What we know:
Blueprint: H1 14-30, E1 36-37, E2 48-49, H2 51-61, H3 86-101, H4 107-118, H5 127-139, H6 154-163, E3 169-173, E4 213-217, H7 220-229, H8 231-237, H9 239-242, H10 257-265
Helix pairs in contact: 1-2, 3-5
Amino acid sequence: MDRSWMQIGNRVLQEYRNGVRSFLDFAFMHATTTQISCPCKRCNNVVLKTRDNVEEDLLMFGIVPSYIRWTMHGEESFTYEVGENDNDTDDEDVFEILEDHFGALSTDNWIAKRESNKHGYDEEPNENASQFYIILNGAEKELYLGCTDLPNNYYETRKILQDLGLHYSKIHACSNNCQLYWKKNTKADESLVCGESRWKPNEINKKKNTPQKVLRYFPLTPRLERLYMSRKTASSMTWHLNGRVDDGVLGHPVDTIAWKTLDESYSLFSPKPRNIRLGLASDGFNHLEI
Length: 290
């Protein structure tokens, strides 16, 4: 059934009115009473109304444009049919992701290692390998219907995220946004710029002071490294040199004057395809006060 009428803004058009009538015919064909939930923007499928009242509301207020599948009016909801090999594919994806994240290690090596351990050939893995084995072992355990291996608390959950390289650093900041308590200012108790206290006034004498403001910093370097750990994103990171067609048309940042100027200024940096160029987006902020 055509539902393009739902995106029409002018509700006076005959196309919109015909669409409303087709919806009402469909809804009341599946209705068990003389009332249905009204999908107009004001009622939002919460209020039950008669056919005439629903039609009046849809013509006056319009239908909710995101209500594409009419599940409240007899249409079946979307269901995903699981194929024979879907579960195997999901498992392979999990192992592939972990293998990509930890780079040189592979699931084949891990399986071989596990089999050899059964025969008594034990060898202590290094720190990186240990994290890989722990996470990979957890990926084999179910997370529903009787699963008992879920994290017991918030701390354990954060530990898993940290092992995956998804951690962040907390840096105290001045409440007036003029200074970070970082590097040489780590132990300062007040801002060297405005003199504002680092700590909340009513909690200064407690065992552990509470900062007035905290900046959460997501380290850039490990995230850039992780882009090269995945075989799917590593090729995209070097596409500008290995996959792009140089047809003289501006279709990628590599075609811009800024990119070319940087390459000319740093001749030792530019030939290496894995080197990353970062651009700064100010979002309207003018640091030069012009």
